[in-house]
Amino acid sequence: MAREQLGICSEANLHGDYLLLTALDGQERYLRQQLAQLPALLSQLSDHFSESMVTGVVAIGASYWDTLYPNARPAGLLPFPVLESSDVLMPADSFDLLLQIRSDRQDVNYLVAQQLYQLLAPAVELVEQLRGFRYLDGRDLTGFIDAPDMVRGRLRRELALLTAEQEPHFVGGSYVYFQRFRHDIRRWQQLSVTAQQAIIGRRKSDGQWLPLAQLEPECHSLCFYQEKERSKPLPLLTQNMPFADLKQQGLLWLGFSADSTAFETLMRQRLGLSELNAGQYDRLLDYSQADLGAAFFAPSVSFLEQFDR
Protein backbone atom coordinates (compact mmCIF):
# COMPACT_ATOMS: atom_id res chain seq x y z
CA MET A 1 0.00 0.00 0.00
CA ALA A 2 1.38 3.41 -0.98
CA ARG A 3 2.55 5.60 1.89
CA GLU A 4 1.91 9.30 1.50
CA GLN A 5 4.31 12.02 2.58
CA LEU A 6 3.16 12.84 6.09
CA GLY A 7 3.63 16.58 5.68
CA ILE A 8 0.76 16.82 3.21
CA CYS A 9 -2.08 16.14 5.65
CA SER A 10 -0.44 17.18 8.93
CA GLU A 11 -1.94 19.91 11.07
CA ALA A 12 -0.53 23.43 11.39
CA ASN A 13 2.92 24.21 12.80
CA LEU A 14 4.49 27.40 14.12
CA HIS A 15 7.27 27.73 11.53
CA GLY A 16 7.72 26.86 7.86
CA ASP A 17 10.66 26.91 5.46
CA TYR A 18 10.31 26.57 1.69
CA LEU A 19 13.22 25.78 -0.61
CA LEU A 20 12.74 26.31 -4.35
CA LEU A 21 15.43 24.52 -6.36
CA THR A 22 16.60 24.03 -9.91
CA ALA A 23 18.36 20.82 -10.93
CA LEU A 24 21.72 20.72 -12.67
CA ASP A 25 21.85 19.06 -16.07
CA GLY A 26 22.61 15.37 -16.21
CA GLN A 27 21.98 14.74 -12.51
CA GLU A 28 18.71 12.84 -12.84
CA ARG A 29 19.98 9.46 -11.63
CA TYR A 30 21.72 11.00 -8.63
CA LEU A 31 18.63 13.01 -7.73
CA ARG A 32 16.33 10.00 -7.97
CA GLN A 33 18.59 8.12 -5.58
CA GLN A 34 18.84 11.02 -3.14
CA LEU A 35 15.12 11.74 -3.21
CA ALA A 36 14.56 8.09 -2.36
CA GLN A 37 16.61 8.67 0.81
CA LEU A 38 14.90 11.89 1.77
CA PRO A 39 11.76 10.48 3.49
CA ALA A 40 13.87 8.23 5.76
CA LEU A 41 16.14 11.14 6.71
CA LEU A 42 13.13 13.31 7.43
CA SER A 43 11.62 10.55 9.56
CA GLN A 44 14.85 10.23 11.56
CA LEU A 45 14.97 13.96 12.21
CA SER A 46 11.29 13.95 13.14
CA ASP A 47 11.92 11.21 15.72
CA HIS A 48 14.98 13.00 17.10
CA PHE A 49 13.04 16.27 17.55
CA SER A 50 9.72 14.64 18.35
CA GLU A 51 8.52 17.50 20.55
CA SER A 52 8.81 19.86 17.56
CA MET A 53 6.33 17.99 15.33
CA VAL A 54 8.63 18.06 12.29
CA THR A 55 7.02 17.38 8.92
CA GLY A 56 8.14 17.87 5.37
CA VAL A 57 7.15 17.49 1.73
CA VAL A 58 9.20 17.17 -1.45
CA ALA A 59 7.46 17.97 -4.74
CA ILE A 60 8.70 17.84 -8.33
CA GLY A 61 8.03 20.68 -10.74
CA ALA A 62 5.61 20.20 -13.61
CA SER A 63 8.24 21.06 -16.22
CA TYR A 64 10.91 18.84 -14.67
CA TRP A 65 8.86 15.71 -14.00
CA ASP A 66 9.43 14.04 -17.38
CA THR A 67 13.18 14.61 -17.10
CA LEU A 68 13.39 13.07 -13.64
CA TYR A 69 10.77 10.32 -14.00
CA PRO A 70 10.30 9.77 -17.75
CA ASN A 71 8.39 6.48 -17.55
CA ALA A 72 5.19 7.71 -15.86
CA ARG A 73 3.55 11.10 -15.41
CA PRO A 74 0.57 12.13 -13.26
CA ALA A 75 -2.31 12.66 -15.66
CA GLY A 76 -3.21 16.15 -14.47
CA LEU A 77 0.27 17.56 -13.95
CA LEU A 78 0.43 20.77 -15.96
CA PRO A 79 2.53 23.93 -15.70
CA PHE A 80 1.21 26.73 -13.53
CA PRO A 81 -1.80 28.15 -15.38
CA VAL A 82 -1.26 31.36 -17.33
CA LEU A 83 -4.59 33.19 -17.38
CA GLU A 84 -5.15 36.58 -18.98
CA SER A 85 -6.92 39.24 -16.96
CA SER A 86 -6.95 42.95 -17.71
CA ASP A 87 -7.15 43.75 -14.00
CA VAL A 88 -4.76 41.40 -12.18
CA LEU A 89 -1.51 39.61 -12.98
CA MET A 90 -0.78 36.14 -11.58
CA PRO A 91 2.83 35.30 -12.56
CA ALA A 92 3.82 31.76 -13.53
CA ASP A 93 7.26 30.41 -12.65
CA SER A 94 9.02 27.09 -13.13
CA PHE A 95 11.07 25.38 -10.43
CA ASP A 96 12.34 21.83 -10.51
CA LEU A 97 11.89 20.96 -6.85
CA LEU A 98 10.06 22.29 -3.81
CA LEU A 99 11.06 21.32 -0.27
CA GLN A 100 8.72 22.31 2.53
CA ILE A 101 9.80 21.90 6.17
CA ARG A 102 7.51 22.69 9.09
CA SER A 103 7.92 22.36 12.85
CA ASP A 104 7.24 24.21 16.09
CA ARG A 105 10.89 25.35 16.45
CA GLN A 106 12.70 27.63 14.04
CA ASP A 107 16.11 26.26 15.04
CA VAL A 108 14.91 22.74 14.18
CA ASN A 109 13.57 23.99 10.85
CA TYR A 110 17.00 25.40 10.05
CA LEU A 111 18.77 22.17 10.97
CA VAL A 112 16.33 20.02 8.96
CA ALA A 113 16.51 22.34 5.94
CA GLN A 114 20.30 22.26 6.09
CA GLN A 115 20.46 18.46 6.15
CA LEU A 116 17.88 17.95 3.41
CA TYR A 117 19.60 20.51 1.22
CA GLN A 118 23.00 18.89 1.78
CA LEU A 119 21.52 15.60 0.60
CA LEU A 120 20.65 17.19 -2.74
CA ALA A 121 23.24 19.98 -2.98
CA PRO A 122 25.65 18.39 -5.50
CA ALA A 123 22.83 18.24 -8.05
CA VAL A 124 20.77 21.39 -7.42
CA GLU A 125 20.94 25.16 -7.07
CA LEU A 126 18.95 27.01 -4.43
CA VAL A 127 16.84 29.71 -6.09
CA GLU A 128 14.69 30.86 -3.16
CA GLN A 129 14.56 30.12 0.56
CA LEU A 130 11.34 31.47 2.05
CA ARG A 131 10.30 31.47 5.69
CA GLY A 132 6.80 31.64 7.11
CA PHE A 133 5.32 31.63 10.59
CA ARG A 134 2.01 31.07 12.34
CA TYR A 135 0.46 34.43 13.23
CA LEU A 136 -1.70 34.78 16.33
CA ASP A 137 -4.49 32.16 16.23
CA GLY A 138 -3.93 31.09 12.62
CA ARG A 139 -4.58 34.46 11.01
CA ASP A 140 -3.24 36.09 7.88
CA LEU A 141 -1.54 39.48 8.30
CA THR A 142 -4.79 41.05 7.10
CA GLY A 143 -6.10 40.10 10.56
CA PHE A 144 -8.56 37.49 9.27
CA ILE A 145 -8.50 33.80 10.19
CA ASP A 146 -6.91 31.90 7.32
CA ALA A 147 -9.11 29.17 5.79
CA PRO A 148 -11.59 28.96 8.72
CA ASP A 149 -13.57 26.16 7.02
CA MET A 150 -10.57 23.89 6.43
CA VAL A 151 -11.38 20.25 7.17
CA ARG A 152 -9.54 18.16 9.76
CA GLY A 153 -8.66 14.51 10.32
CA ARG A 154 -9.32 11.92 7.62
CA LEU A 155 -11.19 14.42 5.45
CA ARG A 156 -7.85 16.08 4.74
CA ARG A 157 -6.69 12.85 3.07
CA GLU A 158 -9.80 12.78 0.90
CA LEU A 159 -9.09 16.30 -0.35
CA ALA A 160 -5.37 15.96 -0.96
CA LEU A 161 -4.41 12.38 -1.80
CA LEU A 162 -4.97 10.48 -5.03
CA THR A 163 -6.72 7.11 -4.82
CA ALA A 164 -6.24 3.97 -6.91
CA GLU A 165 -9.47 4.75 -8.75
CA GLN A 166 -8.15 8.15 -9.78
CA GLU A 167 -4.54 7.32 -10.72
CA PRO A 168 -3.32 3.80 -9.84
CA HIS A 169 0.35 4.62 -10.45
CA PHE A 170 0.29 7.64 -8.15
CA VAL A 171 -1.79 6.55 -5.16
CA GLY A 172 -1.00 8.73 -2.15
CA GLY A 173 0.40 11.53 -4.28
CA SER A 174 -0.91 15.07 -4.47
CA TYR A 175 -0.99 17.99 -6.91
CA VAL A 176 0.77 20.97 -5.33
CA TYR A 177 0.46 24.70 -6.07
CA PHE A 178 2.60 27.39 -4.51
CA GLN A 179 2.23 31.18 -4.60
CA ARG A 180 3.77 34.12 -2.81
CA PHE A 181 1.59 37.18 -2.23
CA ARG A 182 2.90 40.55 -1.10
CA HIS A 183 0.41 42.57 0.95
CA ASP A 184 0.04 46.33 0.90
CA ILE A 185 -0.57 46.36 4.63
CA ARG A 186 -0.57 50.14 4.96
CA ARG A 187 -3.41 50.59 2.48
CA TRP A 188 -5.28 47.61 3.95
CA GLN A 189 -5.11 49.00 7.47
CA GLN A 190 -6.54 52.30 6.28
CA LEU A 191 -9.81 50.51 5.52
CA SER A 192 -12.50 50.26 8.17
CA VAL A 193 -13.24 46.83 9.62
CA THR A 194 -16.60 46.95 7.84
CA ALA A 195 -14.90 47.54 4.48
CA GLN A 196 -12.36 44.77 5.15
CA GLN A 197 -15.13 42.33 6.05
CA ALA A 198 -16.99 43.15 2.82
CA ILE A 199 -13.85 42.31 0.81
CA ILE A 200 -13.23 39.03 2.65
CA GLY A 201 -16.90 38.06 3.09
CA ARG A 202 -16.41 37.05 6.74
CA ARG A 203 -16.37 38.58 10.20
CA LYS A 204 -12.90 39.57 11.28
CA SER A 205 -13.40 38.47 14.87
CA ASP A 206 -14.28 34.79 14.35
CA GLY A 207 -14.19 33.99 10.63
CA GLN A 208 -17.94 33.38 10.34
CA TRP A 209 -19.69 34.25 7.07
CA LEU A 210 -21.37 37.62 6.75
CA PRO A 211 -25.15 37.46 6.29
CA LEU A 212 -26.03 36.33 2.76
CA ALA A 213 -27.56 39.70 1.91
CA GLN A 214 -24.20 41.39 2.61
CA LEU A 215 -22.03 39.06 0.50
CA GLU A 216 -20.62 40.59 -2.66
CA PRO A 217 -20.14 38.16 -5.61
CA GLU A 218 -16.45 39.14 -5.82
CA CYS A 219 -15.67 38.68 -2.12
CA HIS A 220 -12.49 36.72 -1.41
CA SER A 221 -13.98 33.78 0.47
CA LEU A 222 -16.53 32.89 -2.22
CA CYS A 223 -13.67 32.32 -4.69
CA PHE A 224 -12.77 29.16 -2.78
CA TYR A 225 -16.17 27.56 -3.34
CA GLN A 226 -17.60 25.65 -6.29
CA GLU A 227 -18.75 27.92 -9.10
CA LYS A 228 -22.17 26.26 -9.41
CA GLU A 229 -22.48 25.01 -5.81
CA ARG A 230 -21.60 27.93 -3.58
CA SER A 231 -22.11 25.81 -0.46
CA LYS A 232 -19.41 23.34 -1.53
CA PRO A 233 -15.71 24.29 -1.12
CA LEU A 234 -13.19 23.61 -3.85
CA PRO A 235 -11.21 20.41 -3.10
CA LEU A 236 -8.06 22.15 -1.89
CA LEU A 237 -6.13 21.53 1.31
CA THR A 238 -4.14 24.67 2.12
CA GLN A 239 -1.15 25.18 4.41
CA ASN A 240 -0.69 28.93 4.23
CA MET A 241 1.76 30.92 6.32
CA PRO A 242 2.44 34.66 6.59
CA PHE A 243 5.92 36.04 6.05
CA ALA A 244 7.05 39.47 7.20
CA ASP A 245 9.69 41.90 8.24
CA LEU A 246 9.31 45.64 8.80
CA LYS A 247 9.73 46.37 5.07
CA GLN A 248 7.49 43.76 3.45
CA GLN A 249 4.66 41.47 4.45
CA GLY A 250 2.67 38.80 2.69
CA LEU A 251 1.44 35.24 2.48
CA LEU A 252 3.03 31.98 1.34
CA TRP A 253 0.09 30.09 -0.17
CA LEU A 254 0.50 26.31 -0.50
CA GLY A 255 -2.32 24.11 -1.75
CA PHE A 256 -2.62 20.32 -2.14
CA SER A 257 -5.33 18.50 -4.08
CA ALA A 258 -6.27 15.15 -5.54
CA ASP A 259 -8.14 17.11 -8.22
CA SER A 260 -5.74 18.62 -10.73
CA THR A 261 -8.38 21.10 -11.96
CA ALA A 262 -9.18 22.62 -8.56
CA PHE A 263 -6.45 25.23 -8.56
CA GLU A 264 -7.18 26.57 -12.05
CA THR A 265 -10.84 26.88 -11.05
CA LEU A 266 -9.74 28.91 -8.04
CA MET A 267 -7.53 31.09 -10.22
CA ARG A 268 -10.32 31.75 -12.69
CA GLN A 269 -12.70 32.75 -9.93
CA ARG A 270 -10.14 35.01 -8.26
CA LEU A 271 -9.38 36.71 -11.59
CA GLY A 272 -13.04 37.17 -12.55
CA LEU A 273 -12.83 34.71 -15.46
CA SER A 274 -15.55 32.26 -14.41
CA GLU A 275 -19.14 32.28 -15.64
CA LEU A 276 -20.68 33.43 -12.38
CA ASN A 277 -18.29 36.28 -11.60
CA ALA A 278 -17.18 37.36 -15.07
CA GLY A 279 -15.27 40.64 -14.75
CA GLN A 280 -15.61 40.68 -10.96
CA TYR A 281 -12.20 39.72 -9.64
CA ASP A 282 -11.34 39.00 -6.01
CA ARG A 283 -11.11 42.48 -4.45
CA LEU A 284 -8.46 41.32 -1.99
CA LEU A 285 -6.12 41.35 -5.00
CA ASP A 286 -6.24 45.16 -4.86
CA TYR A 287 -4.24 44.83 -1.63
CA SER A 288 -2.34 41.56 -2.14
CA GLN A 289 -0.31 40.96 -5.30
CA ALA A 290 1.12 37.59 -6.32
CA ASP A 291 4.73 37.75 -7.46
CA LEU A 292 5.53 34.02 -7.69
CA GLY A 293 3.58 30.91 -8.68
CA ALA A 294 4.54 27.34 -9.56
CA ALA A 295 2.99 23.89 -9.98
CA PHE A 296 4.38 20.61 -8.62
CA PHE A 297 3.47 17.03 -7.81
CA ALA A 298 4.28 15.40 -4.47
CA PRO A 299 4.56 11.63 -5.09
CA SER A 300 4.08 9.06 -2.37
CA VAL A 301 6.99 7.87 -0.24
CA SER A 302 6.54 4.48 -1.90
CA PHE A 303 7.02 6.03 -5.34
CA LEU A 304 10.19 7.85 -4.28
CA GLU A 305 11.72 4.83 -2.56
CA GLN A 306 11.46 2.53 -5.57
CA PHE A 307 14.40 4.41 -7.11
CA ASP A 308 16.74 3.70 -4.20
CA ARG A 309 19.40 2.02 -6.33
From TrEMBL:
<dbReference type="GO" id="GO:0004601">
    <property type="term" value="F:peroxidase activity"/>
</dbReference>
<dbReference type="InterPro" id="IPR006314">
    <property type="entry name" value="Dyp_peroxidase"/>
</dbReference>
<dbReference type="InterPro" id="IPR048328">
    <property type="entry name" value="Dyp_perox_C"/>
</dbReference>
<dbReference type="InterPro" id="IPR011008">
    <property type="entry name" value="Dimeric_a/b-barrel"/>
</dbReference>
<protein>
    <submittedName>
        <fullName>Dyp-type peroxidase</fullName>
    </submittedName>
</protein>
<keyword id="KW-0479">Metal-binding</keyword>
<dbReference type="Pfam" id="PF04261">
    <property type="entry name" value="Dyp_perox_N"/>
</dbReference>
<keyword id="KW-0560">Oxidoreductase</keyword>
<feature type="domain" description="Dyp-type peroxidase C-terminal">
    <location>
        <begin position="138"/>
        <end position="301"/>
    </location>
</feature>
<dbReference type="Pfam" id="PF20628">
    <property type="entry name" value="Dyp_perox_C"/>
</dbReference>
<keyword id="KW-0575">Peroxidase</keyword>
<keyword id="KW-0408">Iron</keyword>
<comment type="similarity">
    <text>Belongs to the DyP-type peroxidase family.</text>
</comment>
<feature type="domain" description="Dyp-type peroxidase N-terminal">
    <location>
        <begin position="45"/>
        <end position="134"/>
    </location>
</feature>
<dbReference type="InterPro" id="IPR048327">
    <property type="entry name" value="Dyp_perox_N"/>
</dbReference>
